[in-house]
Amino acid sequence: MDTLTRMRAFISVVEAEGFSAAARRIGKSKALLSKYVRELEDELGALLLNRTTRQFSLTETGHIYYRRATEIVREIDHLSETVRESSGDIRGRIKLSAPRSFADVPIGQSLVDFAAAHPDIVLDIHLDDRFVDLVEESFDLAIRITKLDDSSLIARRLAPFRLPLCAAPALIEKYGRPKHPRDLQHLPCIVDTNNRFRHQWHFREADGSPILVPVSGPIEVNSPLAARAAAVAGLGFSIQPDFIAAPEVKAGRLVTLLDEYLTDGAGIFAVFPHRRYMPAKVRALVDFLARWLKENCSGDNRL
Q: What is the full per-residue pLDDT of the chain (303 aa) written as tens digits?
């Protein structure tokens, strides 16, 4: 049995956080994975995993070995992908992080369409609203919906979006239309706590100068879909990405306000760690998403 096979088994166990979960994920028996990891430890002369019937954890040596082993295996896989790329063969697993606000709305269909168009690629999608550590957690790329300012990462802007202020017609009838963003500090607002500015909403004057408005209201929630539902129910004014607000705006259940004060620069980004080259499978996904979003989320085709 070669070292690379044992190394892959060890990485699978660590990333699945256990032998049983790893066995289910990769289609190998738990006993076989345990055998591979034990042989790897014997080969190294070091304990990599602390394991009992109830607990599972990496030893200090295991942490070090895992980080270096993932780099080595990734480089080997990339080498194989480079050879396959020259023959036009795109296949393999892509470990992708995406926020729920991407996957749970119509633009999430882009991932389904990519999987359908590339049957030899396995999309390993992890939905999480936190910013994952791409290197530490071995992600191939992440989709981020934000204003990107982290220079330690490589990013490609897939599509722009706006962050309109929305409210239900009944709420506007009750409180009136705000004439300026600062009016919002005296009105009920719905706070999406996924937004990094949370209680400090950002707008801009016509001359480009920033406007910061402190807001509060009856609901604070870490879900743009829940914030949208609260806005439709008339519980408060809400700032949300246009691709989330769009269905309710089209149906007349929400109205956009203060459009002339909206800020620019927000976008849907594909983000990946610094590497010497991008695997063909990842480039295929990024190109597909950029094309899909352009065709479905711009002009008359905006979702």
A: 588 999 999 999 998 888 888 888 888 888 999 999 999 999 999 999 987 666 778 999 999 999 899 888 888 877 776 666 655 567 888 999 998 878 777 788 899 999 999 998 999 999 887 777 787 787 888 998 876 655 556 788 888 888 899 999 999 999 999 999 999 999 999 998 877 778 899 999 988 899 999 999 999 998 888 999 999 999 999 998 888 898 899 999 999 999 999 887 678 889 887 655 677 888 889 999 999 988 887 544 444
What is the value of pTM for the model shown?
Answer: 0.64
**Strand locations in the chain (E):** 49-51, 56-58, 92-98, 121-127, 141-146, 154-160, 165-167, 188-192, 200-204, 210-214, 216-221, 237-239, 255-257, 267-272
Classified as helix, coil or strand, 270 is strand
Rounded Cα distance, 17 and 13, in Å: 6
Q: Are 159 and 268 in contact (CB under 8 A)?
A: yes
- CA 95/CA 7 separation, integer angstroms: 18
Residue 197: count other Cβ atoms within 10 Å of its Cβ. 14
From first CA to last CA, the distance across the chain in angstroms is 52
Tokens linked to 101: 């606000």
